[in-house]
TrEMBL record:
This is Dynein intermediate chain 2, axonemal. One of its GO terms (cellular component) is outer dynein arm. Belongs to the dynein intermediate chain family. It is found in: Cytoplasm, Cytoskeleton, Cilium axoneme. PANTHER family: DYNEIN AXONEMAL INTERMEDIATE CHAIN 2, DYNEIN INTERMEDIATE CHAIN. Keywords: Cell projection, Cilium, Cytoplasm, Cytoskeleton, Dynein, Microtubule, Motor protein, Repeat, WD repeat. The keyword Calcium does not apply. SMART domains: WD40 (SM00320). Gene3D superfamilies: YVTN repeat-like/Quinoprotein amine dehydrogenase (2.130.10.10). The keyword Acetylation does not apply.
Length: 576
């Protein structure tokens, strides 16, 4: 029984949306019939042949044998008449001139130089060209280096093992290829802290899980600095104002400590090693405004003390001293040192001065607030970097009144900065929002070349590695991040030193010109004020001449200001 039902509809109704509905209609119902089983016969085995491929017939064809022959022709030079000897240069030149003067030749050349003919002629001419695959193209042109991308990555994170997290106040790399670094931990809110654990740690770069050594002082440590000549010796500044000496070979306890009577009045947060024959001398600074020089062989008393009193330096009155917020020493500068004060002034001093006034003679008005970081350029030691409030500035020792370069104001407060130890023009800045900015003055001066969000907490200190590729950055939660920078930020190019030298010299000359004009303007205004007052006093006895004197003084002042402005613009244009 065949059940079939045909659905028919027009083509225009195809493709429409189907509307389905529930329906219980039974179209066909075929029930089983057991009687049909009697007609079923089972055959075993069954042999059946099946051929699915096409059937082809065999055809054989005999073709005639083809014979091939190679023929050659040596074409040296053709197209010459029989009476012309092609090896005779004079005859060939004479014949060419004769043909070129023929009118038919000129017409043929005109036809060949048309668009279509010229293309075909060019095609045949180019067929004779041979390409030398060994030819060196542009051999005299210097290869331009590819523009590489500046980036960084976090290598390791070293966290404070204690549950109560403390801020990291200082970092220092060991001098033995920088395999270890020391971190000093101190609670910023130490007055509200009830923890009696004041440990600091020495970490191995390859092991961020546990510290290499735990240092156990009796009070919080604010700074911890490696001896550049001996990787086993460290000095530290303590919360009590004392300075202490450590020896890794003798265990985690203090080796020697200064007497509290001869130490700083405020917490000692700055210590640096200085050049000496024995390699045992260092100096320290504090917010009490004192700089003290020490010798680890005799730690009880300082070898020398200098009070930073800007008003009367000869009195050496500690009560009138200005607090020191940054300290700097460059080993190649001998006895010279620099310190940044809490009032924004940078003092450049020397130990060779006979009096305290001579030791702190050079001063720079660097920042509006405390100078947080102060560091000389490792290559151009006459230029130094200051970081404070919301800006960083680059100074030259020859220009005292103004800096030669500066960064735009940041939205977040800057907490530190440091020069790159390998690339001349790169320096780093850290901020309270957990961001690290990398500046390169040879690439751009209005914005950083790289800005990295390291963490959500405020960054407290920064210390680049001596090889330049790594940098340790710490935050207030006790975590230290080891960053690795790309080659663009660590390796100098061929002309970087020449370009940076030219940039710094140009900016220094510009500032010197501006300083000279400012001094000249101040001198003229002072002279004008003195003469104007004397003339006004003389004319005070004559009421009729008083107005004339005022007008003459005003005219003279305006004329001087106009003249100074013109001279200033001429000098600036001449420098450019």
């Amino acid at each position: 029984m065949d059940a079939e039902y045909a659905y028919t509809k027009k083509r225009m109704h195809f493709g429409k949306k189907c509307n389905f509905s529930d329906n219980d209609k039974v179209e066909v119902e075929i029930k089983s019939d057991p009687a049909l089983m009697n007609n079923y016969v089972r055959t075993d085995p069954v042999t059946h042949a099946t051929q699915c491929s096409k059937v082809y017939a065999v055809h054989e064809v005999n073709t005639p044998t083809a014979t091939y022959r190679d023929s050659k022709m040596f074409h040296y030079e053709g197209g010459w008449p029989k009476d012309i000897n092609m090896k005779d240069l004079e005859q060939t030149v004479r014949y060419r001139r004769k043909i070129e003067k023929d009118e038919l030749y000129l017409k043929l050349i005109g036809i060949l130089t048309r668009d279509l003919a010229f293309k075909s002629m060019e095609h045949y001419i180019l067929q004779n060209n041979a390409c030398n695959i060994y030819e060196q193209f542009f051999a005299d042109v210097e290869a331009t280096p590819l523009i590489q991308r500046a980036f960084s990555r976090t290598v390791n994170v070293y966290r404070d093992p204690l549950i109560a997290k403390r801020s990291i106040t200082h970092l220092s790399w060991s001098p033995d290829q920088g395999n270890r670094f020391a971190a000093s931990y101190s609670n910023a809110n130490f007055k509200k802290s009830f923890s009696s654990n004041y440990t600091s740690y020495i970490w191995e770069v390859e092991n961020p899980n546990s510290p290499y050594m735990t240092l156990k002082p009796f009070c919080p440590t604010l700074t911890l600095e490696y001896n550049p000549k001996d990787s086993n010796i460290l000095v530290s500044g303590l919360m009590t104002g004392q300075v202490a000496c450590w020896d890794v070979r003798r265990g985690p306890e203090l080796v020697d400590i200064s007497s509290i009577e001869f130490s700083h009045r405020d917490p000692c947060d700055k210590t640096l090693w200085i050049n000496s024959k024995t390699g045992t001398e260092f100096f320290s600074a504090s917010k009490d405004g004192q700089i003290k020089w020490w010798d680890t062989r005799k730690m009880l008393t300082p070898t020398e003390t200098l009070v930073i009193d800007l008003l009367k330096p000869e009195d050496q009155n500690v009560d009138k001293a200005t607090g020191i917020s940054a300290l700097q020493f460059e080993s190649s500068m001998g006895t010279r040192f620099m310190c940044g004060l809490e009032n924004g002034i940078v003092v450049s001093g020397t130990r060779k001065g006979k009096t305290p006034g001579e030791k702190i003679a050079t001063r720079f008005r660097a920042q509006y607030g405390p100078v947080i970081s102060l560091e000389r350029n490792p290559t151009f030691v006459k230029n130094f970097l200051t970081v404070g409030d919301w800006t960083s500035r680059i100074w030259a020792e020859d220009c005292r009144e103004s800096c030669i370069a500066w960064t735009p104001g940041h939205r977040d407060f800057l907490t530190g900065g440091a020069w790159s130890t390998t690339r001349y023009s790169v320096y780093y800045l850290i901020k309270t929002d957990g961001t690290l900015d990398v500046w390169d003055f040879l690439i751009q001066q209005d914005s950083p070349v790289l800005s990295v969000k390291i963490c959500d907490e405020s960054l407290t200190c920064l210390r680049p590695h001596e090889q330049g590729q790594l940098a340790a950055v710490a935050n207030k939660k006790g975590s230290t991040y080891l960053l690795e920078f790309s080659e663009v930020l660590t390796i100098n190019q061929k002309n970087d030193k020449v370009l940076l030298t030219a940039l710094l010299d140009r900016e220094t000359r510009r500032e010197k010109v501006i300083e000279a004009k400012n001094r000249e303007l101040r001198l003229k205004m002072k002279t004008l004020k003195t003469h104007g007052e004397s003339d006004f006093v003389d004319a005070a006895s004559k009421p009729d001449e008083r107005d004339e004197v005022k007008e003459s003084c005003s005219d003279l002042r305006n004329a001087l200001i106009t003249q100074c402005e013109e001279e200033y613009e001429n000098l600036i244009n001449a420098v450019k």
